[in-house]
Amino acid sequence: MQYFALEIAREARTFMIFHRRLALVALAAAAWLVCAPAFADKTTVCTITVNSSDEREVFRRYLPADRYQFVELVERGRPDWLASACRKGIRCDVLVISGHFDGGDEFYSDRVDARESLPVAEMERVSCGGSCPGLFSQLKEVYLFGCNTLNPDSLHAARDEIARSLVAAGHAPADVDALSQMLAARYADSNRDKMRAIFKDVPVIYGFSSKAPLGAKAGPMLERYFQAGEGPTIGSGQPSAKLLALFAPSSMTAASGVSDADAQAAYRRDLCTFVDDRATKAGRLAFVHTLLQRDMAEARLFLDPIERSLDALSESDRAAPAIAPVLAAISSDAAASTRYLAYLRNLGDTLLRTRMIDVASRLGWLTPAQRRAELTRMIDDRLRAADLGAADVEAVCRLNQRHEFDAFAPSLASASHRRTLAASAILACLGDRDAHRALLDALTSAPAPDVAIAQVYLRHHPIVDAGELRHVALRIGTMRDANAQVRVLDALADHPVSDAESLESLVRLFALAKNIGVQRAVAGVLIRSDYRAIAKPELVRALRDKRLKSPDGQDLIDILIRRMQASLGKAA
After folding, report:
1. 92-111 as b/e, with b when 16 or more CB fall inside 10 Å?
2. Comparing 101-105, 119-123, 220-224, 495-499, which segment has the lowest mean pLDDT?
3. Are strands 106-107 and 118-119 parallel, antiparallel or unpaired?
4. Phi and psi (nearest 5°) for 400?
């Protein structure tokens, strides 16, 4: 009986301990349930501070810490900071990006010590890729503090280019307008379209349709917004009419992310095929082939990711068992090749046509000899065009950097082309010396658009002959238009002028100038040149006495004078 009594007592004690522990677990769970909403209700504000921190700090200062938590995604000195954020499992409710965005390819900084940037291609990878499913998945609002972040203007394929290519592809003129509108609506060809595709399903995306205010100005504007008591609405996913009205003079606008019901949803799925990090190189190439079997006006809109897919292939990749058959299938697709070449021959954009010819060569559709013939045909076509301009000169000069096409200059020069300065510049890029001399003569007498063309040429082919530099420098002083003088001087800014006669003529121009812009432009040339060859006390006095008052305080003219004074001191 005593034994049984002990056993009963032991069981009772065990039962009591179990229930005590169960009660403690229940109390802990209840406490967690009480505390969990306070933590879960916090809105995570992710910031990507590539340039100015003004916007971020205003958000941080005015949003209460008990409701908002901040995570800066940029890790200074670490190039893979966005991938690092993905690995940490960060999920953003609000995203604030601050950086310059003028070109539309990346957010970047103008600070010399800043190396971080945010490429659009990386944003697309995070948006589409399987390795980072959470970072953007629960976004309610995005703030893009950068110029042109929501600019609706086409970046690449203008409507008339699409229409012209559709006609060339055999579509009936009556159908072309509707088709070109459909393609323009479906494909992301503006910064606004790109951001909508990246931030899929996000209710509110704020950005700028043109110039955005710098951080030093945007910060105080945001402060006025928060001081009006608008802070609690951040992260609600509802567009703020007050914020848009406050920033309206600075071109702020709003959009929403692409949804599955939008016309651009199919485009986004196609784009994600290229950037999803789960896709193989062979899979991407197979998709390139699929695109090239569509209408070429449609395939052309994917030129950027097609080029990136080809760039990613090494020589060993091309011979790999999974990739070689895909490349062979593309190379042997005569129908796609014919349509592709017909399309590019109809293009009026020289740089775009050059890129498409290069892609055709890399796909095996053009031999090296055929590539040269195709490019020569393109130059000949453009020399006959009425709209020949600076962009054509830039493309041809870049194309002929290795003098691959110099041999074709005589035949092109003798053809019945329009005799314009742009044509002379293109022929000069191909090594034609007569065209080069004509260009230098026109530099100091041509209207402003032609001077811009000459500037493009001189960036690729600087004047190295001292006699030619002297010829241009002397003629600048005879020009009557101060704005034209500034443009020509800017064209000479990267040329190291060492000829004493040229330098003295520029100093005389400085002394006679009635325009501060001309004096600054002269200083820009002199400061990069061998000014020590003419540095004399009387010359420094003349520069100091004749300089016009600067409305902006000290400038390049003051730097030139200080450097000349320093060189005189060393000489003494």
Report:
1. bbbbbbbbbbeebebbbbee
2. 495-499
3. antiparallel
4. -100, 30
